[in-house]
Amino acid sequence: MCSNIKPYVLIIDDEQRFATMLSKRLSLRGYLCEVVYDGESGLAMLPRHPFKAVILDLRLPGLSGEEVLERIKMEQPDLPVIILTGHGNEKERTRCMGLHAHAFLNKPVDLAQLVSLFEEITAGNTSSKP
Amino acid sequence: MMIKNRSTRSFFVPRRWVPRPGMASYFTFGNYRRVWMTLIVSLSITCLVPLSIITVIHQRNVDTAMNVELLLRAERSASNARRTVGNFLQERMDALRFIVNEVGYEKLNHTEQLKNVLRNLKVGFGGISDLGMIHDDGTQVAYVGEFNLMGRNYRNEKWFKECMDKGQYISDVFKGFRGVPHIILSVKSESPKGEVFILRATLDTAKLIETVSSYKSSEYADIFLINLEGFCQTPSFNYGEGDGLHKAGFSVPPPASRTHALEIKDFKGERFIMAYAYINAGETETPFILINLKRDAPMGTVWDTSKTQAIRIFFVSVFVILLIVYLTSTYMINRLFMSDSIKAGTLRAAEHKSQLASIGQLAAGVAHEINNPLAVINEEAGYLMDLIEMDDAPPEKTELSEHIRSILDSVDRCGTITRQLLFFARQFDVKIMNFHPADILSDVLKFYHKEAEYRNIRLTVDVSPRTPVIVSDKGKFQQVFINLINNAFQAMENNGALSIAIGPMEPDFVTITVSDTGCGIPSENLSRIFDPFFTTKGDSEGTGLGLSITYGLMQKLKGKIDVNSKVGKGTTFTLIFPLDMQGDSTS
């Protein structure tokens, strides 16, 4: 029942080919995705679309991933942000989890893992709404 | 216990202070033997110079005190002897005067009367051997004594003339007609009738010699009389018999009313302490000078013993000082060498660890760089699989080839990165070769481009077109720049700038500067940043070895490193590399 409601996902990653392919694969699974290649564009998009989840790279030109995470949490504290980075070290993981990231994943990622995270988020959302 | 004793003892024996191969650069000194010798020489000089000065001063003081004492003693005994000899002669002259006045001209004219007088004189005074009465024409008119001198005329004798002239006369020692040394004492007188005559007595020198000799204070003392011409009047063991024929071997001292003491050198060059006094017999001048000679430095005196003792103490002290200096220096250098060996081992291990850490840091960066293309491959391949599994229609050929090309591009990206890494890893071996500094810098900077891009740090490399090829250890050269660039990246916030400039050119070396716009280093820390384990970062970050290792690497490359920094403005490291590190331009 719940799987019918697919979350609207924002992908922020400067690795253009990766972001595009990820959105394509999620689309094949029924997700609606928006792709941007830097933090500023992502933050600009945020108020205009009812995103249910964000996939965020840490290394970004301009604003860094951590700064973007902080700004998202300031504006929409409940919006789940999944960090997906090339090779995140323990310090970065600790800092991001401290900023209330939903999950911290390293590339390359298993899509099934990502999908299950989304299902978890959707389930959480629906269960919290009466 | 035995082992402990032996090992402690072995610290006092100089060892072969040679570091193990490849470890020399970690040691405080290049040549421990030279340091050891310098230590021994400087410590010895420091201790021995004051000791020698004190000993010399002591010896001189002793000499001075000894001379003063010798002079005083010689003067005292000369003074006493002078008085006695003076009295001896005066008594006899007074006796003659008494006889002349008491007995009178008439009685003295007769030999029989004269005989009585001589007998009384011999009983009363001794030493008088004959007596004569001489008229003013020089003829001896009465005589008593052992020789037949009656009627002899003395008109032309010196003593006769002197006595007639001065009224009294004491001769020096001479042999005269009789051939034995004697002295003539004579007194002139005038009878109530106006006859002028002289009473003359002959004095044996034996009694005089005995009187003078009694003042001899030691066997080394030589006390005797000389006359005004310098001939010995009583025996001197230095200059011969007292017969008036042997001349004393020194200049006649100048006339003086008192006793004097002085240091002299005789004609043979022998040194003496001499006290002298011109002798007067009451009012009568005598031709005698009393001489008291003493050797300069008699052996066995208190002073001499003091000198010998001081010299003995000096040599014992020198031996003890040298021994202690030798043992202490050896012990210190052995200890120093041992602690340096331990320090060198620790430093090398730390350096190795730090090198591994920097490789690890590099590997983390590389993993990130590789994971991005791998993620692309993952998604591309996943998508192709999705197409096959989820779409009923097979994918278009063009779409397929697009995705495969993307996969191949990503593989190529990974390949480039791993090639760079392998090339880089190989450089850690010691390999001295020709290379262009700019090439190495661009290789190193490749690893930092991405991070610089993310953090908006501007990287600039300014290479002079005249930069020459250098001969150096490529791996160490790279390591130096990895360390400095890591340091700069850690010091800078985002939006900084890192600039590397090669130049200006010099004939024998290349200067490279690495400047950042980081937080800078406070001036109080500037002198310590190359010290091992010095860090201002927290406990978790940094080992405090990066710059120390860089310093060590620069030494191994025979280069120099210097730093300038302003807090809040940034830091500039200036590196100077020799054009050929194997050449002799090591200055």
List keywords for this structure.
heterodimer, A: 130 residues, alpha/beta, Rossmann fold, 5-stranded parallel beta sheet, 5 helices, 5 strands, 45% helix, globular, B: 587 residues, alpha+beta, Beta-Lactamase, Heat Shock Protein 90, 5-stranded antiparallel beta sheet, 5-stranded mixed beta sheet, 12 helices, disordered N terminus
The whole-angstrom Rg of chain B is 56 Å
What is the average of the pLDDT values of chain B?
85
Indicate the CATH architecture of chain A.
Answer: 3-Layer(aba) Sandwich
Mean pLDDT across residues of chain A: 87
Question: Span from first to last CA of chain A?
Answer: 15 Å
Strand content of chain B: 15-25%
Write the layout of secondary structure elements.
The complex is a heterodimer of chains A (130) and B (587).
Chain A: E1 8-12, H1 16-28, E2 32-36, H2 39-45, E3 53-56, H3 65-75, E4 81-85, H4 90-98, E5 103-106, H5 111-128
Parallel strand pairs in A: 1-2, 1-3, 3-4, 4-5
Chain B: H1 2-10, H2 32-108, H3 111-124, E1 128-135, E2 140-144, H4 158-166, E3 168-170, E4 182-190, E5 196-204, H5 205-213, E6 222-227, E7 260-265, E8 271-281, E9 284-295, H6 302-390, H7 397-426, E10 432-435, H8 437-446, H9 449-455, E11 458-463, E12 470-473, H10 474-491, E13 497-505, E14 509-516, H11 523-526, H12 546-556, E15 560-566, E16 570-578
Parallel strand pairs in B: 11-13
Antiparallel strand pairs in B: 1-2, 1-5, 3-4, 4-5, 6-9, 7-8, 8-9, 10-12, 13-14, 14-16, 15-16
Helix pairs in contact in B: 2-3, 2-6, 6-7, 10-12
